[in-house]
Description:
- Chain A is built from 14 helices and 8 strands.
- Chain A has helices at residues 30-41, 60-74, 90-103, 121-132, 146-149, 156-160, 163-166, 180-188, 205-209, 225-236, 240-260, 264-275, 291-303, 310-313; strands at residues 10-14, 45-48, 80-84, 107-111, 140-144, 170-175, 196-199, 215-218.
- Chain A has an 8-stranded parallel β-barrel, surrounded by 5 helices.
- In chain A, helix 3 (90-103) links the parallel strand 3 (80-84) and strand 4 (107-111).
- In chain A, helix 10 (225-236) runs antiparallel to helix 11.
- The relative contact order of chain A is 0.13.
- Chain B binds chain D through residues 51, 54, 56-60, 62, 88-92, 95, 112-120, 123-124, 126-127, 130, 148, 150, 261, 263-264, 282-287, and chain D through 51, 54, 56-60, 62, 88-92, 95, 112-120, 123-124, 126-127, 130, 148, 150, 261, 263-264, 282-287.
Amino acid sequence: MAFPKKKLQGLVAATITPMTENGEINFSVIGQYVDYLVKEQGVKNIFVNGTTGEGLSLSVSERRQVAEEWVTKGKDKLDQVIIHVGALSLKESQELAQHAAEIGADGIAVIAPFFLKPWTKDILINFLKEVAAAAPALPFYYYHIPALTGVKTVRAEELLDGILDKIPTFQGLKFSDTDLLDFGQCVDQNRQQQFAFLFGVDEQLLSALVMGATGAVGSTYNYLGKKTNQMLEAFEQKDFSLALNYQFCIQRFINFVVKLGFGVSQTKAIMTLVSGIPMGPPRLPLQKASREFTDSAEAKLKSLDFLSFTDLKDGNLEAGS
Amino acid sequence: MAFPKKKLQGLVAATITPMTENGEINFSVIGQYVDYLVKEQGVKNIFVNGTTGEGLSLSVSERRQVAEEWVTKGKDKLDQVIIHVGALSLKESQELAQHAAEIGADGIAVIAPFFLKPWTKDILINFLKEVAAAAPALPFYYYHIPALTGVKTVRAEELLDGILDKIPTFQGLKFSDTDLLDFGQCVDQNRQQQFAFLFGVDEQLLSALVMGATGAVGSTYNYLGKKTNQMLEAFEQKDFSLALNYQFCIQRFINFVVKLGFGVSQTKAIMTLVSGIPMGPPRLPLQKASREFTDSAEAKLKSLDFLSFTDLKDGNLEAGS
Amino acid sequence: MAFPKKKLQGLVAATITPMTENGEINFSVIGQYVDYLVKEQGVKNIFVNGTTGEGLSLSVSERRQVAEEWVTKGKDKLDQVIIHVGALSLKESQELAQHAAEIGADGIAVIAPFFLKPWTKDILINFLKEVAAAAPALPFYYYHIPALTGVKTVRAEELLDGILDKIPTFQGLKFSDTDLLDFGQCVDQNRQQQFAFLFGVDEQLLSALVMGATGAVGSTYNYLGKKTNQMLEAFEQKDFSLALNYQFCIQRFINFVVKLGFGVSQTKAIMTLVSGIPMGPPRLPLQKASREFTDSAEAKLKSLDFLSFTDLKDGNLEAGS
Amino acid sequence: MAFPKKKLQGLVAATITPMTENGEINFSVIGQYVDYLVKEQGVKNIFVNGTTGEGLSLSVSERRQVAEEWVTKGKDKLDQVIIHVGALSLKESQELAQHAAEIGADGIAVIAPFFLKPWTKDILINFLKEVAAAAPALPFYYYHIPALTGVKTVRAEELLDGILDKIPTFQGLKFSDTDLLDFGQCVDQNRQQQFAFLFGVDEQLLSALVMGATGAVGSTYNYLGKKTNQMLEAFEQKDFSLALNYQFCIQRFINFVVKLGFGVSQTKAIMTLVSGIPMGPPRLPLQKASREFTDSAEAKLKSLDFLSFTDLKDGNLEAGS
C-alpha cells in the first residue's frame, strides 16, 4: 500500500473514554457518541486513547478493547479513527500498534516516552521508528507535547528533518504547544510533503491556522466542534473578522473554565452536560469534577448561547460575560 | 491632558544600547541609529532601555542619559519614544518615570518586579500604579513577560480587568509570551478601550496579528523592520498567503540563530552586520557573540537574500536554505 | 498477619534489569547478581523494577517475570525483596501488587502517577490505597520523588499524617528528594511509628542519616554498597569525621560521573565494570553509555582506589583527583 | 593587607531592613536591633542588604545608607558586618563594593546577576571578579542561590576551582540550596583553603553541618539564633541526638509557617513579635503579612515554648505541637 494515504484533515475529536460510576469502561454509549460527533458536531475524525481518553490510565487490555469498539462503531460513519498507542514501554506500544493495524484503524499516534526520556532527537526517532515498524501499513503521527513529556530538547522541526528516511509511514504531527516558530518551520520546511499539521491547543487554533495548520486534534471538539467548524469555514473564506469572533467566543468559555481548573475530569463533566451522553467519572488519579464546577460551566454555556451562533455572522458579537 | 493619547501602532524597535569596546555607552551613534530605523527599516517608534537595550545592566544614571539621548535625537523624526522604567526598586522606577516625563518621552513601560515577586494581581497592580503615579501625564504600558519574570500567576487578561480605575494612564500592553488565549482575551475583553496590544514574540507575530494585535515591540525590528512591515501590509490587505511567506522567511532566519544560541549579544552582532553601525559588545553578565556566530549569521542573511523581498510577491518562495 | 512486619533497614539496592544485546531481559545472570550483592557489597535488600531497573520500560508481563526471578533467586540469601509496582494505570499497579503477594515478595512500593496527576494529597492517598488493597498482607512503601513525577504539591510529611488510618499496611517511605525539612518532619512527626525512612539521594546520604534516616534505597549501592556500609558503620559509632571521609570519597565518584551525564544507562555500564556481571544495554528510550563514558568512569574508579578503603580509617584521605 | 582575613564563623543573621508604616527606612531602631542580636540571640555577624533585607528593593542610595548605619551601630559590638552588594548592574555593584570598603565593612557578598544571565561559569567569574576588584581589601563571598537566580548551570564546586587565581579576595560561599553533593564537594575540594562554607537553608542546617559547613547565613537567626546556637553547640560536642532535637524543634516552626506562606513579609512580622522591635511592613512588591498569619505564628511560637529549651537537654522532646 503506497504512502501518503488519505490525508487527515479538519477537526479530530480527542475522544473521552466513557466510564460507569465504578470506574469501569462504559462501552455501551460509544455508538451513540459516534453519532453525536458526526451529526451534532460535524466531526468525523477521532483520536482514541490519548490524554483526554485517559489512555495511559487504562491497562493495555482495556486500550485494545476501547480501540476496537471505536473502530467498529465508527465504521461507515467516521472518516478516520486514529489510535494513540504511546506508552512508557516500547513493547506495549508495539503491541498496541500491531493491534491497531489488525482492527483496521486508520492511523496510529505516539507520544515521546516521558519517564526515562530520550536524550537526543536521534534516540527519540529510534523509539518512534520501532513503534511504527510494528504497524508498517498504518499512517504514523507524532504527538508533540513538550510541556507534558518534558522532552523539550527536541524541536519538532528538527525531528521532521528527513523523517521519511527513518519512518516511511510518517504522515503528520499533532503539535500541542504554543511555540509557533517551531510549528511554522515544520510547515515551511515540509511544503513538498503531504503531511498533516494538526494543532493541539484548542483555545488558540486560529493562531495556528494562519501559520499553516491543516487541522486540529483536541478535546473541545467533542462539544465545540460545530462552532469550531464555523471558525474554520470563516477562515477558509478569508473572513478573518468573523473567524476571530468565533475564536473569541470559544476562548471566553475556555478562559472561564481554565480559571476554575480545567482538565480531563472537567471535560467529562462538560461533555455530559452538552451531549446528554453520560461520560461518567474519570479514573484515579483523577477525581470527578466538583458540583460547583459543573454548575458554573453550565451557567456559562447558557450565557454564551452556545446553541446558536447565528448572531456572529452579523458581526454583532459583544464583549463580555 | 486627556487620555488616551495618540495610539502607539505598528512596529516598535526595542533599541540596542550601543557600547564602545570598553563597555561604556557609545552615545555618538544614536543619531545615526535613529536615521537608520526611519529611513532603512521604516520603523518610527522605539522602546528604550528594555531587555534588548540592557536596561537593567545600566546604572540609573546611565538609563537617564540613554533615554535623554534617544528623545533628543528622535525629535521630529520618530513618532513615539517609549522609555522602559521598570526596576527591582520601586523608588528607582519612580525616579526614572519622572525623568521620562521631564525629558518629553511619549510613554513609559514597566515590567513586573522579579526578584521579590508580587504574590497576587492586586499587589502587582499596586506596584505598577505607584510607578505610573510618578508620571501622571505619560501613557503607561505594562510589559508582560512571565517566562522571564517568573510572575506567571498573574494573567494579563485579569490584570487588565478594570485597570483604568487603578491606573488612569494605562494605554497598552507589551505581551511577550505565546499564550494567545491570554492575549486574545486581553483584546476581546477590552474592545471598548483604545488600548495598544503590542506583541513581543517577533518570530510568530503573524499568529498574534490574527488574534487582534495592534502592533509589535521587538529586537528584530531593528534589522528586519522593513520585511516585517511588508508582512503587516500584506496582512492588512488580507493577502494571507503573502503574509505567511514573509513570516516564514523571517522565521527561517530566527530559527537558524536560535539554534546557535540567540540573545542580546547576538542581536548586537547582527545589527552591526546589517546596519553597518557599530553596536559594540554587550556589558557583563553578557559576553560578545562569538566570531563563529557572526560568520554563520552573515552567511544566512546573504542566503536568504534579505536585501530584496520582491520575489515573495510572486509567490515563488521556495523552502529551504 | 500483624503489622508492622520486619523493619526494612540499612542499604537497599535498586536493582538493574540485566539485558542481552538485543534488549531482551537476561534472566540468566540474576542468581549471580544476588550473590554479588550479598557477598561483595554486603547488601541484603533489594528494590526491584524501580527507575534503575527500567521498570516502567518493561511490559507488565516482563515486570512479573523479573519480580519472580529476583524472589526465587534471593530466597534464603536476601533479607527483603521489595517490588516496585507503580504504574500509570491503577489496574496494572493492582495486578502487579497482587502478583508480588503471590510470589512471596516482602513488600511493594509505589510511585505517584505522573502523567495525569493527582491534584491533592487526598487523591494521591486514594490512589495509593487502592494499590495497597490489592496486596493486603504486604508492607507498603511510598516512593516520593517529586522532581520526577512533578507531583510537587504533596509534601511527604502531609501525606504521612494519619496514613495508617487509610493504608494500614503502610510501612515506610523512599524519599528521593533533597528537601530535608520535609524529610525531617516525616521522621519527627512519626516517632511513635515503626516506619522505615529510606533516603534515595545516594550522593548525600550522610545528610539524611543525621536527620533520622533509617536506611537508603539507591542504584549506587549495587557497586558502592560496601563503601556505603562502612560509612553507615562509622556514623553508627559516632565517628563523624570518618563517616564524612567516606561520604566525600563516594561524592567524588558521583560528582565525576554527574558531569559526564549520569543515568540508568551509565549505571548499567558502571555495574558491568565493577561487578564483572554483564548488565547489557538499556532499552529504548535509553541508549547504551558511550565508550568515552565507560573509559572515563573506569579510570576514575581506579584512581579512587575503590577496591580498598582502609586508608580512610587512618584519616589520610587527601582531596583531589 | 594579607588574605585570608579573620574567618567568618558561626551564625550570621541576614538583617531585616526596618521600615516605617510609610515604607521609608526606619534607621532609628538599628542600634537596638544590634543589641538584640548580640544579647538575646548570641549572634555577632550580620549580612546586610540581602534578600531578607529587601536589598534589591532599595535604591542604591538607600543601600549605602543602610550599610553605613549597620557598620556604625555594630562597631565594637559585632564581629563582622558583611554587605551584600549584588545588583543587576555591574556598575552599581561596583559602586556599592567600593562604598562598603570606605565605611569599614568586613566583607562583601555578591549574587549572580539574574535578569540577563551569565551563560557560563567563566562569564560569571568575570562578573564577580569585576565587583571584587572594586574593593580589593575586602573579603569576598559568593552568594549561591540557583533557584532564585535561575543560574543553575553553574555548580558552586566548579566555580571554586582555582577561584583564588581569579578573585584573590575570595573567602567563602553562602550556599543557599539543598544540593549537598555540590556543597560537599565545595568543602572536600578546598580543604587546603581557609574558606568559609556558610549554609543558607536554615531549616536543614544540621544536614550541612555534617557535610562540613563552617557557619550559616539566614533570616531565622534573627529570632531563632539562640536556639540554633544551642544546636551548633550540641553538634560540636558530638551529641547528635540533642542536635537533632533542636533541629526538629526549629523545623516544626518553619514547617508551620511554610504552609501558611513564608517570605520576607512574614519574617518581618515574626521578628517584630519575637524581638519587640518594630520592623514595619515590607516595601512593594511585597505586602504586609496578614493578621491571620501573625496570629497563627504567635500561637505557634507560644505552643513550642520558644523561650525555654531546657527540656530538650533531657531528651524529653515529644513529637507534635
